[in-house]
């Protein structure tokens, strides 16, 4: 009975998340409470499960709030502008150089963990180059999305935060082994960008008018977005403090990698230093916090709601029951490799499940099942993260992707047709490498 109630809870939550009719917070809070009542637990017991779940995610919540604030401020002051502008200048006029530059610019832009800001920086800046060279704008979206996905393995990115919340581990400890995969992934993606650019050059040579109508439609939108963003951002830039901000950002990241203090504490100190350094006026400091608070609080609220959800499912023993019954149903030779199978199909899963559904509903079940056969929880986590994360910006459930499509004047269906096979293959290669070198 517990397995049936638990599965129904997860199915209902996934269905609600896919429907986009309610926020993840509502689904993750109310549905498990109803399930716990149905399983015969009272309010007092459910409150205990809630406390247990919230305690397990609190450090992740603190880290998310201050990491988003810190990197938001670094974007505001223009910390990454010189590097991005230099890359654009170097890549101008050459198809292969533009493709490589796209990968590197997107990687730098994604350092704040926000897909929306990455697209706001890269699409308006690079689309005119793609237009001038008659390059396919869907290639721009493919390269930016894949590069941003690789960088999204950072501790303040959504997938690692969600996974750390489920496992109850420190998010920086979860991240450190993934640094190798991020480096390998970016190197491979530069290689892929070169191959795709060579193919693009051949297509352009055969069809000089390639996608011209799309460029003409997209350019004015991108220019408008760029002009509006430039006007808003100009007053916040602090070019004279570039080196001071660079030292501060490197110091915070260094402390994070070193692990001498908790990640949340490191970012809290970073924010406390960055605000007075760049904005001595208290009103300006509060404006910066208010500007980035919505993103920070939204992610924090989702993680807290997930803590409640996981606390209830663990406390009621629903996850244990589902795992035990699933082991009885699945063929014995499949169960120990279930996480690898899920990881292999991770990118297509992004077309069916939202990020919250994948990490808060599917991952806990797989982890519970596979660890019973001697596989470590971290191996399950890395396999499912690496297998799925490349598909982040091909998913219809990604708001940032819809923003990118709007900026570039492109269509979701055509983006999926153009990018799915390439991104899935890239994901499988990256997963295979992680298995070979012993990370997953």
Task: Give an account of the 3D structure.
The protein has 440 residues and is an all-alpha fold. It has one domain (2-436). The protein is 80% helix and 0% strand. It is built from 21 helices and no strands. Helix 1 crosses helix 15. The longest helix has 34 residues, at 43-76.
- Unreliable stretches (pLDDT < 50, length at least 5) are 210-223
Compute the number of strand runs: 0
What is the averaged pLDDT score?
A: 84
Our count of helices gives 21
| SSE sequence, one letter per element | HHHHHHHHHHHHHHHHHHHHH
Shape: globular
Range of strand content: under 5%
Radius of gyration, taken over Cα atoms and rounded to an integer in Å: 22 Å
Largest pleated sheet: none
Euclidean distance between termini CA atoms: 34 Å
* Number of structural units classed as domains: 1
- Helicity, as a percent range: over 70%
**Global structural class:** mainly alpha
Write the layout of secondary structure elements.
Blueprint: H1 2-19, H2 24-38, H3 43-76, H4 81-91, H5 95-109, H6 115-132, H7 137-151, H8 158-167, H9 171-175, H10 178-206, H11 212-234, H12 242-258, H13 263-278, H14 282-315, H15 318-329, H16 338-344, H17 346-352, H18 355-370, H19 377-389, H20 399-408, H21 412-436
Helix pairs in contact: 1-2, 1-15, 1-18, 2-14, 3-8, 3-13, 3-14, 4-5, 5-6, 5-7, 5-10, 6-7, 6-11, 6-20, 7-10, 7-21, 8-14, 8-18, 8-19, 10-21, 12-13, 15-18, 16-19, 17-19, 18-19, 19-21
